[in-house]
Design goal:
It is a single chain. It is built from 4 helices and 6 strands; from the N terminus they run H-H-H-E-E-H-E-E-E-E. A 6-stranded mixed beta sheet has the order 2-1-6-5-4-3. The radius of gyration is 14 Å and the shape is globular. The protein is an alpha+beta fold. It has a single domain, classed as Nuclear Transport Factor 2, Chain: A, CATH 3.10.450. The protein has helices at 2-10, 14-17, 20-26, 43-51, and strands spanning 27-34, 40-42, 59-71, 74-84, 90-102, 107-116.
Length: 124
């Protein structure tokens, strides 16, 4: 589902992450995350972290998206990611999964997990 990939990628962008309104529009109120670090976060703590981030020339690259329908209103989005610095150094390789639910008028992320993985070739 193209809209879910677009919304997932939006959450990687600094201008979206700085906007509490945008983040809360994309995250379900009962959102939960198990981060790449293994730490668990709720919606409010993720919103606080995102809105306090500082601008960086580094960015999260993502690729190889797959969407799996769990129910008509529940989708599992999986993909790979890596952190790329402005010097083009690559680190933080992860496999990521997000569960998106349709709330009647919009899709919202209800769960996200990042799991460290072996390095992979960065695609376009």
């Amino acid at each position: 589902m193209k809209i879910l990939i677009e919304q997932e990628k939006a959450l990687h962008k600094h201008d979206v992450r700085k906007s509490e309104q945008d983040v809360r529009r994309l995250l379900h109120p009962t959102f939960m995350e198990v981060g790449r670090s293994g730490e668990t976060y709720d919606c409010d703590s993720v919103v606080d972290m995102m809105t306090q981030e500082h601008m960086s020339d580094s960015y999260l690259h993502s690729q190889d998206y797959q969407c799996i329908q769990l129910e008509p209103s529940v989708q599992l989005l999986i993909y790979k990611s890596a952190w790329i610095t402005n010097e083009q150094a690559v680190s933080g390789f992860a496999k990521r999964s997000s569960i998106w639910v349709f709330t009647g008028d919009k899709w919202q992320m209800k769960y996200h997990q990042g799991t460290p993985c072996a390095e992979f070739e960065i695609g376009a």
